[in-house]
Each structure stands twice: as structure tokens, then as C-alpha cells.
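Quick one, C-alpha cells below:
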């Protein structure tokens, strides 16, 4: 074997040793989604087959049943609540994070920790007070109630994430903008904000995912009109057992919009998750 062949072999082995673990990790995390889609395309007899069938005749009956039910309305509720609460959280969280990054406040560290503690607070600890509050002001079973509650939890995460991004923006760039005649709002809008777009995209994805997946608050604060998709999945629990085909098809329809959004902002998302280090 000549030198060039040996080099090619070593390169090939190196690539295999690199991509094989990566492929196994991706398969491990993607397997639940793959299994969910497969179950949604199976007939009931294939769903309960033992050993599990990986080769079967696919069917769209489960999707047809879901589309003909009231479930799609709850998916719409979930999307509306997630998008509005995420947008509200990002607007307030971005402004708050910039303020913490550029201005020194008395007790700033304690205030930041208090904001973070809102995100760590167990939902079960506040769900009863929230229920009484919204019942008193007439907001139970409304999308507005869920938007407000989800925003409270999402703002804390947004502030902590974006503060780190704003801290990385060179102050010299802002000083130069001030010398060019820009005021505080102009400096923020034209200099700082464009540089933290990856962080904003990351916060948007995480906020939307959190809101779409949330179950307990939606289960307690809604009854009929504002029911979200995670709560509506309980309808697939029948006296005969759990409708695995139907719940898999419904879950696929719930995951799909979030997955599409994540793909659309994937470049910003990757940079955001690496705190802007990847260009």
C-alpha cells in the first residue's frame, strides 16, 4: 500500500470514527419521534403486534380521524398562545436584559436571581393562586389567561439568556454610534439589537416549545373554549384503552409547526445555542 492509499484509509477511518457516534446520538434522540410517526401510520393490529413491526402497510386513517375531530381547534389555540406569549416575553425580556447589561442597579444580582427563580418555581406551587385570581377577574377558560401566565415564566428565561448576549456586544460600538448622533433608543435599535438576533431566535424557539408542551396550567385554567392540544390529548383515552394510533397522529400534528419554525431559524438557533461563537 502506497503513502496516498494509506492517507485515504486513515482519513476514511477517521470520518467513520467521527460520524458513527454522532449518528448514534442523533438516532437515540430522534427515535421517539420516528416511533411516533410510525405508530401514527399503523393499523391497530400493527400497533399492538409483538414483536413490534418495522415493516408494515401504512395507513392515513389515524390522521383522518384526528382531522375530522375537534383536536385541530386546540392545536390552533396552542399555536396562538405560544406565539403571542413568546412575542410578549421577547419584547419585554429584550428590553430588560439590555437594561441589566448596560446599567448598574442597586441589588442587581439579587434582582436577577429573583427573576431566574420565577423560571425555577414549580408550577404546582402557583397554580391554585392563579386559578383564584383569574376566576375573580373573569379570565378562566380564556387564551388571555394562558398568555399572561406563560409570559411570566418565559420572560425570566429570556432575560437571563439575552443578558449574556448583550454583555458580549462591545461597548465601543455603542460609543461610536453615540458620537454619530444616535440617542439611547437609536443605539439599542441599530447597534445592539441586530447583534443579538441569534439569542432572540433561541429564546423564541425555547419559549414556544415550553408553551406548546405545557399541560398542568392549561388543564386547570381552561375548560372548553381555550383548551390546548396537550390537554385535548386526554380525549384519546377511551374506555377500551389508549388510542395509540390517534394520539400519535395528534402528537405529530402538534410537533410539526414547532419543528418547521425551528428549521426556518436554524442558523440563528445554532449560533444562539453556542452563544454566538459559530459564524
Amino acid at each position: 500500500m502506497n503513502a496516498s492509499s494509506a492517507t485515504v484509509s486513515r482519513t476514511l477511518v477517521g470520518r467513520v470514527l467521527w460520524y458513527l457516534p454522532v449518528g448514534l446520538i442523533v438516532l437515540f434522540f430522534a427515535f421517539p419521534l420516528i416511533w411516533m410517526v410510525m405508530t401514527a401510520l399503523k393499523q391497530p393490529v400493527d400497533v399492538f403486534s409483538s414483536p413490534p413491526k418495522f415493516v408494515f402497510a401504512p395507513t392515513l386513517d389515524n390522521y383522518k380521524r384526528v382531522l375530522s375531530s375537534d383536536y385541530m381547534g386546540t392545536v390552533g389555540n396552542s399555536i396562538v398562545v405560544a406565539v403571542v406569549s413568546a412575542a410578549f416575553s421577547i419584547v419585554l425580556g429584550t428590553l430588560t436584559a439590555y437594561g441589566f447589561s448596560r446599567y448598574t442597579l442597586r441589588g442587581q444580582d439579587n434582582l436577577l436571581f429573583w427573576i431566574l427563580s420565577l423560571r425555577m418555581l414549580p408550577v404546582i406551587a402557583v397554580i391554585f393562586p392563579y386559578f383564584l385570581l383569574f376566576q375573580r377577574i373573569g379570565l378562566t377558560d380564556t387564551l388571555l389567561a394562558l398568555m399572561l401566565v406563560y409570559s411570566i415564566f418565559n420572560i425570566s428565561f429570556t432575560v437571563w439568556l439575552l443578558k449574556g448576549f448583550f454583555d458580549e456586544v462591545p461597548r465601543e460600538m455603542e460609543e461610536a454610534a453615540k458620537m454619530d448622533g444616535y440617542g439611547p433608543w437609536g443605539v439599542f435599535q441599530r447597534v445592539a439589537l441586530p447583534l443579538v438576533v441569534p439569542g432572540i431566535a433561541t429564546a423564541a424557539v425555547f419559549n414556544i416549545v415550553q408553551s406548546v408542551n405545557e399541560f398542568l396550567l392549561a388543564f386547570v385554567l381552561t375548560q372548553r373554549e381555550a383548551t390546548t392540544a396537550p390537554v385535548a390529548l386526554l380525549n384519546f383515552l377511551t374506555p377500551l384503552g389508549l388510542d395509540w394510533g390517534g394520539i400519535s397522529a395528534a402528537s405529530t400534528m402538534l410537533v410539526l409547526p414547532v419543528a418547521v419554525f425551528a428549521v426556518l431559524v436554524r442558523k440563528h438557533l445554532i449560533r444562539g445555542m453556542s452563544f454566538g461563537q459559530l459564524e
